[in-house]
Specification:
The protein is mainly β. It contains two helices and ten strands; from the N terminus they run E-E-E-E-E-E-H-E-E-E-E-H. Helix content is 11%, strand content 39%. The longest helix has 14 residues.
């Protein structure tokens, strides 16, 4: 199951998400969704020691939706996984994430829809009740290195991580969501044409 990465984005990186309705987050309609507890930190640069294995991620954020199509390829190229993800916040601000595994043919159908994309490398540092991963984005003039901390409950991620050169927490900063970075990358690439 994909670990969700991106928070809902206010202006100027707004997905123009549909308005929640009163029945949207009932037990019945959310039975396939999982509550998501994560924090993101901007790092000064790549940590000195990263695992040798990583995954290459291509995210396509489908325009005017709450959907993200993700392709994940392991570093030796022997495994490719496609996932369709939806993220929504409930009335209390809690993020919920739903994932669907797709075939390559199904992913191709979704990939034909209008989207903005983001490519990154992800290094899994630690997995378990509290997982840590480093994401590296190099499609902008400045390299972006983010630490993501994800837990099974809010209490799992209350403490700030140690052992990393953290600039600041960016969990609630729209420009550091996956969609926000994809928007900046698209603007940068279009300005170079």
């Amino acid at each position: 199951m994909s670990r969700g990465k991106d928070a809902q984005c206010p202006q100027p990186f707004d997905l123009r998400l549909p308005k929640p309705n009163a029945n949207m987050f009932t037990t019945h309609t959310m039975k396939y969704a999982k509550r998501e507890f994560e924090r993101h930190f901007l790092l000064r640069g790549e940590p000195l020691s990263l695992p040798s294995q990583y995954v290459s991620i291509l995210d396509a954020y489908l325009v005017d939706t709450t959907l993200r199509l993700r392709r994940v390829v392991n570093s030796d190229g022997t495994s490719t996984v496609y996932k369709l993800t939806q993220k929504k916040k409930d009335a209390d601000g809690q993020m919920w994430i739903t994932n669907f595994c797709l075939t390559g043919a199904e992913a191709t159908l979704f990939r034909a829809l209008p989207s903005v994309t983001l490519e990154k490398r992800r290094y899994h540092i630690e997995q378990g009740a509290v997982s840590r991963a480093i994401d590296i984005v190099e499609s902008l003039p400045e390299k972006i290195v983010l630490l993501e901390v994800e837990g099974d409950a809010a209490a799992d991620i209350q403490e700030s991580p140690s052992g990393f050169d953290i600039v600041r927490e960016v969990t609630d900063e729209a420009e550091y969501t996956g969609y926000g970075i994809a928007q900046r990358s698209a603007l940068f690439l279009s300005s170079r044409r």
